[in-house]
Amino acid sequence: xxxxxxxxxxxxxxxxxxxxxxxxxxxxxxxxxxxxxxxxxxxxxxxxxxxxxxxxxxxxxxxxxxxxxxxxxxxxxxxxxxxxxxxxxxxxxxxxxxxxxxxxxxxxxxxxxxxxxxxxxxxxxxxxxxxxxxxxxxxxxxxxxxxxxxxxxxxxxxxxxxxxxxxxxxxxxxxxxxxxxxxxxxxxxxxxxxxxxxxxxxxxxxxxxxxxxxxxxxxxxxxxxxxxxxxxxxxxxxxxxxxxxxxxxxxxxxxxxxxxxxxxxxxxxxxxxxxxxxxxxxxxxxxxxxxxxxxxxxxxxxxxxxxxxxxxxxxxxxxxxxxxxxxxxxxxxxxxxxxxxxxxxxxxxxxxxxxxxxxxxxxxxxxxxxxxxxxxxxxxxxxxxxxxxxxxxxxxxxxxxxxxxxxxxxxxxxxxxxxxxxxxxxxxxxxxxxxxxxxxxxxxxxxxxxxxxxxxxxxxxxxxxxxxxxxxxxxxxxxxxxxxxxxxxxxxxxxxxxxxxxxxxxxxxxxxxxxxxxxxxxxxxxxxxxxxxxxxxxxxxxxxxxxxxxxxxxxxxxxxxxxxxx
Length: 566
Ligand SMILES: Nc1ncnc2c1ncn2[C@@H]1O[C@H](COP(=O)(O)OP(=O)(O)O)[C@@H](O)[C@H]1O
Ligand SMILES: [Mg+2]
What we know:
Strand order of the largest sheet: 13-16-19-12-20
CATH superfamily of the largest domain: P-loop containing nucleotide triphosphate hydrolases
Distance between the termini: 98 Å
Largest sheet: 5 strands, parallel
Bound molecules: adenosine-5'-diphosphate, magnesium ion
Shape: elongated
């Protein structure tokens, strides 16, 4: 169909003049489509076939989502705009990574397969703020809803109370995404009222108060929910904190009383622990039982740890919220990046996954030396900073280090019943794989001797985890009160030099004992602080306000490596 230009031109001009403030919201598609339009010759006719596209309001929508950076999320406005251009052509702008750029193909297929319609013309998707890189497929859902909102036929309401995140399958189903807890916390902070995420992640948002979280299975379910045509199952208020059944118990560990005591002291003050003993003496067995005597994880700690596990994508349908202290035991072939975090994009490593829990390094000297060296920063600071080309990122990494090692390569050095076949230089080389600065950060060293046959076959059960846990809990309560005004310090293991001076005052007998220990036992000066910290915990376990000589005496025994006795 053809139309004469003057009429059309007049109509366009008058609408522009009538609506000057809204000028920017009008698009003169016609200018582009027909050069003839600029010619005011009355005899020429317009070449355009589609009259309706001459002037129409900007077709745009805005949906809120969030992007995860490090362990936190920040709000992202997903703007969708349609304009003149090829129908079905989509441009995604706003510093998207490959996964985000690819989302357009998933989104269009998902919309088609959900029997819905996307708007006509070329679609531009902008992810604002454009200065921060957007990663991963979690923007599929907000982009799809933004497209659908443009078509009034889809009857999508105002989206400002909502925050949406989710990956779309081509069929329109929703797939789980990473970082839902961080996204939920950000949505709450920005005043959003409703969060819609994939069903398989929804539980992660449970601890965020004042935000209605819903899990959806598909794009159709989300659209129907937004239209008010169907309901979604809301996420229950609080995660279930009943710990799962713990199969292991300290009652199964026969003998080794002094080792169990050292582990109890370590757990009570959150001290790093190194066990040294021949193969089969029960080191791994004891380490595995450590979580059974640690105090239950608190809600604040659980949120911190869940955020990290969530962005690593290791939470699944039946386990969406961390309700127990993590126990991580990476193999000794782990890379620096695997332990600390990293790869091309900074992601958390084992030290961060163990945040608020235990990092167990079995066969410590077998780890690459460089890998052990990089442990020093998180051990000191409780966090780890990773620098990559893509940027630098800091992740929390406050964990209790538990390590185990043989005394020599064959494992039988010092074993009265088995001969050690290693030469002195081999033994020396083996031990020197552990650097002084690393050992310096381990408060308790304990020897685990080979267990006697009669002890192993004994039917008498040792003390169970419940009784030990009770003592640990009481000692931690004392520390909680002590450090209530000391910022992020929660236990004796984290005490700084200033706090040591404040809380570990010795009486004259204690000063004399430690002086003798340092000189007679050939203790290094760096062992001094460690002894004071551990003695404080031993006193706390005994319910004593003042560190006494007996507490110091026990703490001195936990410095095997400094004493050079093995
Ligand atoms: N003190 C112990 N009480 C009961 N069983 C033990 C003890 N020590 C070792 N065992 C048995 O020996 C096995 C090997 O112990 P493990 O902890 O792997 O030794 P390590 O790590 O020191 O080489 C354990 O699974 C357990 O069955
Ligand atoms: Mg072992």
